Amino acid sequence: MGTQGPQGIPGVDSNFVYNQPVPSTSWSLTHNLNKMPSITIVDSAGTVVEGDIQYVDVNNIVVTFSYAFSGQAILN
Length: 76
Known about the structure:
mainly beta, 58% strand
């Protein structure tokens, strides 16, 4: 039997989408997944963007960028 994720479904991995509506050079993500997830960042135009990712703990991440923009971080 698989492990139980935060949503209570055995064997199903959880994910989280963080929305950053205001352009910023630093995004603070609280995801409550209890793990250090992989991260894909996309700007408001849908372009994948790379940043400096710092895992604060298993539920918090800070990502910094060289320029301010809005978009989404997809964590899984």
